[in-house]
């Protein structure tokens, strides 16, 4: 246990952890069950092209979410791109900047302009009033992001979309297994997109899914993910290759069998972090609605420099030196990345909440790779850093200006 800042690894002490603790280290289900599925796959000699494991995964996901249609794909970025095209979005589409850049890229890649909109400072999701202000005659849709698994203001965004005849879809990459007003995420808007990347609490190695209650839209998406084929030698639509492989589906089916265990671990970790970080000045852990289903896969902090005595970036430096690989999410915001930075050089003037949060938010390791003792140690590091925030800030500031 470290009692003074001289013992921090940043200032010459030994790291608290011998190996790096990463945000988003993969959860693994029962290895034997996975390998059994892989052996069955090899016995069938059916590796891709809508095999039985993909079909089973789609059916189980649709049943769990209570949606009519689930189409699994090779990754969530391709899923976003296909959903955007299937919905016929054109011109301008309103999106948050406080999200992973794939949300914006899925539009820009298809020559659709992502119009960055500010977020609610409390929910970190699209501010409906700001959305209204961003609508122009060229606007064709809205893409909301259920950030950290916490749902957007679905009702307000739905009302806006309907009143302006806009398409509404949701990037639900963080929200698999979460609910809103008792209904599972996946049932809102025209379509919702999930990510099953290895860093997500439920993964298929690489993968994603589009879910929708529109049979017509689902049929179009199924054509588009497989080059537009409707049977052998019969192409009836422009499409691409977005298919999920059988081995990825095997991982997904295996992970589903352990899903409740993964979520239970996440909830345990969240409770432990809540206890360890309680009453640390300037450190706020985001809250989840305990009346809804939530995957709790993100441990997200806001750092108030004025109260903590050091800023988010300095705290991240302290943690990295201890081999706690905290992440700045979502820094610096899509509007400050290329090509958007060049396209919209003054976007920050319209995004004050996004700008503020991009400087304050960080995420800590959780999942099955982290135990309660790890969390206690991380909490002690943060508490020590904040208790000496002014001194740490002074030392790091001098180092960066070359004064020492």
TrEMBL record:
Keyword Repeat belongs to the record: no
Positions of modified residues (N6-(pyridoxal phosphate)lysine): 200
GO biological process assignments: polysaccharide biosynthetic process
Keywords noted in UniProt: Aminotransferase, Pyridoxal phosphate, Transferase
InterPro entries xrefs: DegT/StrS_aminotransferase, PyrdxlP-dep_Trfase, PyrdxlP-dep_Trfase_major, PyrdxlP-dep_Trfase_small
Active site: 200
GO molecular function, one term: pyridoxal phosphate binding
Protein family according to the UniProt entry: Belongs to the DegT/DnrJ/EryC1 family.
Record's protein name: Aminotransferase class I/II-fold pyridoxal phosphate-dependent enzyme
């Amino acid at each position: 246990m470290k009692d003074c800042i001289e013992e921090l690894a940043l200032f010459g002490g030994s790291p608290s952890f011998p190996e790096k603790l990463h945000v988003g280290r993969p959860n693994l289900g029962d290895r034997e069950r996975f390998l059994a599925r892989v052996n069955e796959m090899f016995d069938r000699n059916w590796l891709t092209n809508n095999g039985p494991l993909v079909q089973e995964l789609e059916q189980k996901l649709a049943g769990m979410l209570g949606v009519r249609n689930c189409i699994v794909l090779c990754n969530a970025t391709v899923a976003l791109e296909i959903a955007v095209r299937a919905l016929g979005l054109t011109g301008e589409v309103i999106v948050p900047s406080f999200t992973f850049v794939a949300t914006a890229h899925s539009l820009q890649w298809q020559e659709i302009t992502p119009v960055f909109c500010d977020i609610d400072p409390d929910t970190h999701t699209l501010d409906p009033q700001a959305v209204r202000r961003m609508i122009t005659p060229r606007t064709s849709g809205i893409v909301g992001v259920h950030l950290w698994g916490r749902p957007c203001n679905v009702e307000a965004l739905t009302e806006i979309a309907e009143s302006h005849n806009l398409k509404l879809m949701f990037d639900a990459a963080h929200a698999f297994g979460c609910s809103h007003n008792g209904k599972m995420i996946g049932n809102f808007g025209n379509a919702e997109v999930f990510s099953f990347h290895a860093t997500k609490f439920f993964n298929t190695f690489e993968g994603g899914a589009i879910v929708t209650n529109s049979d017509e839209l689902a049929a179009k998406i199924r054509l588009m993910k497989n080059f537009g084929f409707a049977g052998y030698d019969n192409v009836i639509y422009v499409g691409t290759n977005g298919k999920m492989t059988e081995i990825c589906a095997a991982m997904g089916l295996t992970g589903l069998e352990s899903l409740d265990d993964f979520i239970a671990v996440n909830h345990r970790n969240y409770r432990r972090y809540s206890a360890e970080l309680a009453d640390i000045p300037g450190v706020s852990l985001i809250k989840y609605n305990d009346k809804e289903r939530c995957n709790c896969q993100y441990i997200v902090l806001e750092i108030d420099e004025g109260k903590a005595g050091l800023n988010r970036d300095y705290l991240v430096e302290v943690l990295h030196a201890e081999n706690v690989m905290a992440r700045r999410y979502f820094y610096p915001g899509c509007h400050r990345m290329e090509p958007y930075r060049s396209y919209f050089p003054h976007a920050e003037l319209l995004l004050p909440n996004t700008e503020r949060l991009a400087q304050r938010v960080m995420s800590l390791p959780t999942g099955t790779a982290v135990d309660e003792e790890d969390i206690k140690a991380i909490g002690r590091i943060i508490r020590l850093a904040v208790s000496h925030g002014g001194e740490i800030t002074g030392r790091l500031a001098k180092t960066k200006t070359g004064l020492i």
